[in-house]
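Exercise 7.
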Amino acid sequence: MARITASVYTSHIPAIGAALDQGKTQEPYWQPVFQGYEFSKTWMQQNKPDVIFLVYNDHATAFDLDFIPTFAIGTAASYAPADEGWGPRPVPTVQGHPELAAHIAHSVIQQDFDLTIVNKMPVDHGLTVPLSLMCGQPPASDFHWPCPVIPLAVNVVQYPVPSGQRCFNLGQAIRRAVETYDDDLNVHIWGTGGMSHQLQGPRAGLINKAFDNAFLDQLIADPAAAARIPHIDYVREAGSEGIELVMWLIARGAMADVAGGKPPRVAHRFYHVPASNTAVGHLILENT
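Solution. The predicted structure, written as tokens, is:
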């Protein structure tokens, strides 16, 4: 059967994608950020998955205020990088895994989660920046991502947004779905977005290092408690865009210990400020 062997958590800041695309990774401002992912690129080569299930949020590219799905799973064969106003990122087209995606959609819906099924959509920096950070940045013309990707877009842009508990429970349903797929596949699940940041208003530029690191501690050791954090705490402590952290709970809910297995091994942990006006958080957990 298929199995989830690891979860990856990372910010997906658009300025990181711009720094990669413009060859700025060794500039003094950016070098500490990208140094934090050197281990991760090696780890990916040594622990290459067959499929990545990638949780992210769309930034008004595939969806806008005319159509706002709470959870949207991509079941297409491929996904083109989106034009977010300055042309698509120079990265490869993302290849999907329609068979596993359709199986997960069927299983999760039968577990009483309403997913929107999407057969065609562009994918923006929320999805492509994590891939670049974890897999490197060769030219789009001669490079393919290392494996297929199943995108799950979560609405954390327009209220009402799903609770952390709902996201954590969805992760558990995804794990059950993966484990009922007949093919022997090694699946990684990634939760992206965050950490603390606010892009507008009097608190624009807010960074809360204490909250961010406490969240990482809790995500590792007590994810059920992290799932109980109410929306208002994210807004107060992590800024208006800090709510993106609920997407990390989907990935964490899919890990084995939540279903009674052994605690995960922390393969890597990284945190850095500044990167644009956002805190960068990154974590790799392995099922044991």
